UniProtKB/TrEMBL annotation, chain A:
Record's protein name: Phenol 2-monooxygenase
Keywords, ordered alphabetically: Monooxygenase, Oxidoreductase
Family matches, as CDD domains: AAMH_A
InterPro entries hit by this protein: Ferritin-like_SF, Phenol_Hydrox, RNR-like, YHS_dom
Pfam families to which the protein is assigned, alphabetical: Phenol_Hydrox (PF02332), YHS (PF04945)
Gene3D superfamilies: Ribonucleotide Reductase, subunit A (1.10.620.20)
Keyword Oxidoreductase included in the entry's annotation: yes
Gene name, Swiss-Prot/TrEMBL: mphN
Keyword Oxidoreductase on entry: yes
Automatic annotation (TrEMBL), chain B:
Keyword check for NADP: no
Domain of life: Bacteria
UniProt keyword terms in alphabetical order: Monooxygenase, Oxidoreductase
Keyword Oxidoreductase: yes
InterPro entries per the UniProt record, alphabetical: Ferritin-like_SF, MP_mOase_hydro, Phenol_Hydrox, RNR-like
Protein name: Phenol hydroxylase P1 protein
Name of the encoding gene: mphL
Taxonomic source organism: Marinobacterium zhoushanense
Pfam family, one: Phenol_Hydrox
Length: 500, 327
């Protein structure tokens, strides 16, 4: 008997789809209890289109081949002291930000996908989420291994695990993922799978990995290439889930729209860290933040939302505001880090002449008018031996947890403040977007663990900032923080390179 | 004569990350250590989950088991993602060549009807048991505590999806890719009296809330008994009846059992050695699930293998439990 040939789709379906069954002995809702509380209506899980149709044996095979190549490069990188080939020691601070700010979130993505990979009632969707959970674990572990060698030669990497739950600016990405993970299973997938992985991932992943390529960081760029095919799968899953939710029931449309609005806004706030990295931290620039935003959001995202219009989905709220902000946020953010450079776990610096000119060219409407004068002032103070560090702790936005550093867009000299009163307490925000998010879920956001509030409440050691940084954050003061000028990183680099 | 290639050596500032140094001293760390220890966040969670407002996002109190250090659960295989997929890739490569050989040589035609019937009746429905194990291990991944154990649970969960898919392929080899064997096995799973105890047990495991209890129920109790009955005893019976080629298709599962068993035994032993309270708790859980599983498997084991089969399997389980330090 000759067996008939099965198409990949049929084979995958036979191998996977029919594994689940209707319960007879327990209430199935007890086994999958979180599917209904968000108001999302799933009428038929079998309509789920499996986006990858990847069986486990194929997964092991492909991923093992990728891992083998990746670790061969890591080994060669370490053996040949590949860190000596980076463009400039300033570059290394970009990957300090990556390891402390991004890698722990890969882990949270792994946890979040494990949660929904257990909880969805449809086996096809579950399996896709389980694989993503496994991929995200891969990403955090390969990132730690890629950075492991840098940690041996540079400061600022060594305490990433301790810092992830504590440091003021790291609460921005951390709270972003806590927000998604503490949400219901469908909001999580819209937040991370769609808004983050599909709409915004190119603005995170591409800048860091291209930055690595442009700056001679072979370990990180090899990780980037290796993770690319995983990311492509994740993007496919993100798009599939949106279409699935919208096609299941028309009542889902306004809920999904609200989540897209929320997570678009939270995502753009989070990405201000990437913007500053691209414009200020990369010695060899890839492109400006503004250019990246135009290519990856305005063009690609614009086409996507045009496609989703047939479901009744519109462009995320405040997208037009971000179109203005793209000319400002990276400058405002790096300035904040520069002036709080004693409290950062990486080094900061004033852009070189060449870099200031590049910024002028890339930001003709804003840089010379608003931001170049600040750097000229900073340079004057530095030349006088008065490198400026602010003494004050910043006020934080209750939602995104970024210090109040963004300005009004019609007046870039005026800081943007919003506030609202809930149960007799006043809460502060950086924007209408963040204020809206709070107003929609106040019981959630009153719980925000705001690092500055916590310092003032005495929950982070103290009483002085030095104790908070040294004892509670466990930064090596004088090594991890402050300006790159005069830092141990810089001294070692000069020694290795044989320059005085 | 050895050839020494000269490379420039630079003195490192430190050997490893601070949290690894704190645990293992100031020396170069292994990749397992850097990928595993203290990776999961432990404090300052911003919001309580809507789906579990009584706990933090990462919370050790989702089980009654208490550990001073959740990273005591070292995986003896030292699996992190990279080592895990590479090890499984080797296993799948050899499984793939067995399945291809079985198919190419039409070994299915060499099986007598008695063997074929038993494979469809006893082996193929196990894919639903494996699917349950997939979910139960994902449960521990999602709600467990500390990367050392949760990553190993994830690997186990994904393995079980793989095993479920291999079992499905056995069905497809037997039915010439029509899917009839899978449908027949599903009918047995849903309706045949012999399988109902097992299905009820699976459903009960899926509503169990304590993740460590569930780990013991699934990965220790149920897996030991299922492994013993289906992959050892049934395998011997089928071989004796002229179905020895089936062993080519279940070799993966046998090898997997050995590999994963090492990790399960290490976890059980470590948890029990931690405190008397843990040991008492675990004894209760194991007894309870041993009773349920024995009851669920009894009709199936007797029909499939005879009166002694289940007690032999239970004896294996008891031996394993005792070896882990639980009476």
């Amino acid at each position: 008997m000759a067996a008939k040939k099965l198409s990949l789709k049929d084979k995958y379906s036979l191998l996977t789809r029919d594994l689940d069954w209707e319960f007879s002995y327990q209430d199935r809702k007890e086994a999958f209890p979180f599917e209904e509380f968000e108001g999302i209506k799933i009428t038929d899980w079998s309509k789920w289109e499996d986006p990858f149709r990847l069986t486990m044996d194929a997964y092991w095979k492909y991923q093992a081949e990728k891992e083998k190549k990746l670790y061969a490069i890591f080994d060669a990188f370490a053996q040949n002291n590949g860190q000596l080939n980076v463009s400039d020691p300033r570059y290394v601070n970009a990957i300090k930000l990556f390891l402390t700010g991004i890698s722990p979130q890969e882990y949270q993505a792994h946890q979040g996908f494990a949660h929904i990979g257990r909880q969805y009632g449809g086996v096809g969707a579950r399996v896709a989420c389980q694989m993503q959970s496994l991929d995200e674990l891969r990403h955090v572990q390969t990132q730690v291994h890629a950075m492991s060698h840098y940690n041996k030669f540079f400061d600022g990497f060594q305490n990433w695990s301790h810092m992830q739950d504590r440091v003021w600016y790291l609460s921005v990405p951390t709270s972003f993922f806590h927000d998604a993970r503490s949400a219901g299973p469908f909001e999580f997938l819209v937040a991370i799978g769609f808004s983050f992985e599909y709409v915004l991932t190119n603005l995170l992943f591409v800048p860091f990995m291209s930055g690595a390529a442009y700056n001679g960081d072979m370990a990180t760029v090899t990780f980037g290439f290796s993770a690319q095919s995983d990311e492509a799968r994740h993007m496919t899953l993100g798009l599939e889930v949106i279409k699935f939710l919208l096609e299941q029931h028309e009542d889902n449309v306004p809920i999904v729209q609200k989540w897209i609005d929320k997570w678009f806004w939270r995502g753009t706030r989070l990405l201000s860290l990437v913007g500053m990295m691209m414009d200020y931290m990369l010695p060899n620039k890839v492109m400006s933040w503004q250019e990246a935003w135009e290519i990856y959001f305005e063009e690609a995202g614009g086409a996507l939302f045009k496609d989703l219009a047939r479901y009744g989905i519109t462009m995320p709220k405040y997208a037009e505001l971000v179109e203005k902000e793209k000319e400002h946020v990276s400058h405002q953010t790096w300035w904040t880090f520069y002036t709080h450079g004693h409290a950062a776990g990486f080094h900061t610096w004033i852009p070189t002449d060449e870099e200031l000119d590049w910024l002028s060219e890339k930001y003709p409407n804003t840089f010379d008018k608003y931001y170049r004068p600040r750097w000229e002032l900073a340079r004057k103070l530095e030349a006088e031996g008065k490198r400026f560090y602010t003494k004050a702790l910043p006020q934080l936005c209750t939602t995104c947890q970024i210090p109040m550093l963004f300005t009004e867009m019609d007046d870039p000299t005026q800081i943007s403040y919003r506030d609202t009163v809930y149960k007799g307490e006043r809460y502060h925000f950086c924007s209408d977007g963040c204020c809206d998010i709070f107003n929609d879920e106040p019981e959630k956001f009153v719980q925000s663990w705001l690092p500055v509030h916590q310092i003032f409440q005495g929950n982070c050691g103290g009483p002085g900032v030095e104790q908070v940084l040294g004892e509670y954050y466990k930064m090596n003061l004088g090594a991890d923080n402050l300006d790159i000028k005069g830092s141990p990183d810089e001294k070692r680099w000069k020694q290795w390179k044989g320059v005085a | 004569m050895t050839i020494e290639i000269k490379t420039s050596t630079l003195e490192p500032v430190r050997n490893t990350f601070a949290h690894i140094e704190k645990r293992f001293g100031d020396k170069p760390a292994t990749r397992y250590q850097e990928a595993t220890y203290d990776v999961q966040a432990e404090t300052n969670f911003h919001y309580r989950p809507y789906w579990d407002p009584d706990h933090e996002l990462n919370d050790p109190r989702r089980t009654a088991l208490v550990m001073a250090d959740w990273y005591a659960f070292k995986d003896p295989r030292q699996f992190y993602y990279g080592t895990y997929v590479q090890q499984r890739a080797k296993m799948q490569e050899s499984a793939e060549s067995s399945y291809a050989f079985f198919d190419k040589r039409n070994l299915v035609d060499a099986l007598n009807d008695e063997v074929k019937t038993q494979v469809i009746r006893y082996l193929v429905p196990l894919r639903h048991v494996e699917h349950t194990a997939n979910l139960n291990n994902m449960y521990g991944t999602a709600y467990g505590y500390g990367t050392a154990i949760t990553q190993a649970l994830l690997f186990d969960g994904m393995d079980r999806l793989g095993v479920a898919q291999y079992l499905s392929r056995i069905g497809l080899l037997l039915d010439g890719n029509s899917g009839d064997a899978l449908n027949e096995a599903k009918q047995l799973w849903m309706q045949d009296p012999a399988w109902q105890g097992m299905r009820a047990l699976c459903e009960e495991s899926l509503v169990t809330k304590d993740w460590f209890e569930l780990f013991l129920a699934q990965d220790l109790v149920i897996d030991t008994l299922v492994g013993e009955l289906f992959y050892q005893q049934l395998d011997r019976k089928l071989s004796a009846q002229g179905g020895q080629d089936i062993a080519m298709l279940t070799e993966f599962m046998q090898e997997w059992s050995k590999d994963t068993g090492r990790w399960v035994d290490a976890v059980v032993k470590t948890a029990a050695a931690e405190s008397d309270a843990n040991r008492v708790l675990m004894t209760g859980w194991i007894e309870r699930w041993r009773g349920k599983a024995a009851e669920a498997l009894a009709p199936l084991a007797e029909e499939m293998l005879g009166a002694e089969a289940l007690s032999e399997a239970l004896a294996e389980l008891d031996k394993r439990v005792a070896k882990a330090g639980i009476q």
